[in-house]
Design brief:
With about 500 residues, the chain is an alpha/beta fold. The protein has helices at about 5-20, 25-40, 60-70, 90-95, 130-140, 180-185, 190, 215-220, 230-235, 250-260, 270-280, 310-320, 330-340, 355-365, 370-375, 375-385, 420-435, 440-460, 465-480, and strands at about 1-5, 50-55, 75-80, 100, 115-120, 145-150, 170-175, 195, 210-215, 235-240, 265-270, 285-290, 300-305, 325-330, 350-355, 390, 400, 405-410. The protein folds into two domains: about 1-210, Rossmann fold; about 215-485, Ribokinase (UDP-N-acetylmuramoyl-L-alanine:D-glutamate ligase). Helix 10 links the parallel strand 10 (about 235-240) and strand 11. The radius of gyration is 26 Å and the shape is elongated. Bound molecules: ligand NPW and potassium ion. Its cofactor is Mg(2+); K(+).
């Protein structure tokens, strides 16, 4: 698990650790890690041109001490101080002693091999002020690699919100722990590759992170265990209510995602025309024209993709919500939820909602642009308000549960932003719910596998939703299964 903590937790941990160490120790650890990354990126230090952008806080101090280390190894280091009177005194003295120079001329940026962004870190507030914004823009237009110290300046470390101009880094070297703003967009897309330098904060951070990102090993651990005794019934049945005469393809994609999840089989409740189309593609589907409540027992329902928003669809949703099993509501189901159910599910069994930003905005009565800009806040808010686990789709998919846990998905590709991929995701998560995964795990594991399948399918070229289904087995295989290879459960005869 890649854990990220709100700035208030980082500050508390830092204070507790600093109380046990000689003054300046943490900044030296940070600067050493930063300088090592810069040296590696430069592919050698001697004769390289490095420019430091230095704010008046400790973020600037880190940059100055790292610059001093590089200067001692022969780099030509120029520091631009945003506020010369308030720059970190110890860092300044170290840089001077190592042969670094202070300059007021931003033209040095144009000729630099590497720019170190030490304007603001966890102490930054709002978008960059004009002087800092000009330097950031100049660095973005130059050839140099940009390395952000702790957090790209202008990105809110705790939330990923970017309120105005901000640095766009190639690499961010962060200290002690990841920050949510490095994992959640729009901040994440400013951070580039994130490297963590251990400065010893670990034991002083709370057990529960503010935001966590699953890694392959976590997904492997969370996947359901299969054994020789596992049959289709024990693996669970996922029910799908999707598709309509107008949008039959949504059912094909949702069923496809569900078939390649962990459930033993997929039951579809839909109109005849939808069933015919689904059976052509997926003959293994168990289909029924009956209402969901009469279609047979399932361990989880997926309801919504392409089902329409008329009163027939409303009644189907009502039946599914009245069941006592986990339910995932997506697409038209979300519209119906807002229109007829006051935006609330009010169920005792787990409910998962999978809106994109527009659907999330509608359910919250907010603006879509606001949801995009403050993804963490709005995902949490919708989970609190609905009592459901909410997965907000889009760049850096987020999952929040009503108890306050938040996960951010580290996989995915912009190529996934194409019609029907959401239907595949719904089916996949529904299948994981049917196999018994708790809502937060089902949603975040589903997002992980879906994002990975999308990446494998795209390989830097456009994809369609059915390509994602085709690559789900490869995505599963690539994370492995912590419970051992299933094919070895029984000896071959
Ligand atoms: N925590 C740890 O364990 C460790 C932390 N360490 C390091 O300390 C960093 C935190 O240092 P910090 O607290 O001094 O704050 P920091 O990020 O330098 O920013 C404050 C400065 O920014 C300015 N400023 C604010 N907003 C601005 C804006 N929009 N645009 C422009 N300027 C703006 C603000 O100006 P003021 O408001 O005072 O005028 C003030 O000058 C942390 O990120 C890490 O790098 C490591 O050394 C060791 C371990
Ligand atoms: K920075």
């Amino acid at each position: 698990m890649r854990n990220a903590y709100h700035v208030e937790h980082v500050r508390a941990a830092e204070a507790a650790l600093m109380a046990r160490l000689p003054e300046g120790t943490l900044m030296q650890r940070a600067a050493a890690g930063l300088a090592a990354t810069c040296a590696r990126l430069l592919g050698g230090v001697y004769g390289r041109r490095v420019v430091l952008l230095v704010g008046s806080g400790d973020n600037g101090g880190d940059a100055l001490y790292a610059g001093a280390r590089l200067a001692r190894r022969g780099a030509r280091v120029d520091a631009i101080l945003l506020n010369p009177e308030r720059a970190h005194a110890g860092g300044l003295a170290a840089l001077r002693a190592a042969g670094g120079r202070m300059t007021g001329d931003p033209a040095v940026i144009d000729a630099a091999d590497l720019v170190v962004d030490g304007i603001t870190g966890i102490g930054g507030q709002g978008g960059l002020r004009p002087g800092a914004a000009e330097l950031a823009a100049r660095a973005a237009g130059a050839q140099a690699l940009v390395v952000a110290v702790d957090v790209p300046s202008g990105v809110d470390a705790s939330t990923g919100v970017v309120e105005g101009p901000a640095v766009r880094a190639d690499v961010t070297v962060t200290f002690g722990t990841y920050k949510p703003g490095l994992l959640v967009d729009p901040g994440a897309s400013h951070a580039g590759v994130v490297e963590l330098v251990d400065i010893g904060l670990g034991p002083y951070l709370p057990a529960e992170p503010t935001v966590a990102a699953l890694q392959a090993g976590d997904v492997a651990r969370l996947l359901p265990e299969l054994s020789a005794e596992t049959d289709k019934y024990r693996r669970g049945v996922v029910g799908v209510v999707a598709g309509s005469d107008r949008f039959p393809g949504a059912a094909v994609l949702t069923v496809g995602g569900a078939l390649y999840g962990a459930a033993g089989y997929v039951r579809l409740a839909a109109p005849r025309r939808v069933i015919d189309l689904v059976l052509q593609r997926w003959p293994e589907t168990v289909c029924s024209e009956a209402r969901p409540g009469e279609a047979g027992r399932v361990q989880a329902w997926v309801v919504g993709p392409g089902m329409g928003t008329d009163e027939v669809a409303r009644d189907r949703l009502a039946e599914v919500l009245a069941s006592d099993v986990p339910v995932l509501v997506d697409a038209d189901g979300l519209t119906l939820l807002g229109k007829y159910f006051g935006g609330r599910a009010d169920r005792s069994a787990p409910t998962v909602l999978t809106p994109h930003a527009g659907e999330c905005a509608r359910l919250l009565g907010a603006e879509r642009a606001d949801v995009e800009a403050r993804r963490l806040e709005h995902t949490r808010q919708l989970a609190e308000r609905t009592g459901a686990t909410v997965l907000l789709k889009g760049s850096t998919t987020l999952v929040a549960d009503p108890a306050g846990a938040v996960r951010v998905n580290p996989t995915g590709t912009p190529w996934l932003g194409t019609a029907g991929t959401g239907d595949v995701l719904s089916g996949l998560i529904g299948s994981l719910l049917a196999a018994g995964l708790p809502a937060l795990d089902a949603a975040s594991v589903g997002a992980y596998l879906h994002g990975l399948a999308g990446r494998l399918a795209a390989d830097d070229a456009p994809i369609a939703a059915h390509d994602v289904i085709d690559h789900l087995p490869a995505a599963w295989r690539s994370v492995g299964n912590d419970h051992g290879p299933v094919r070895d459960a029984r000896p071959c005869l």
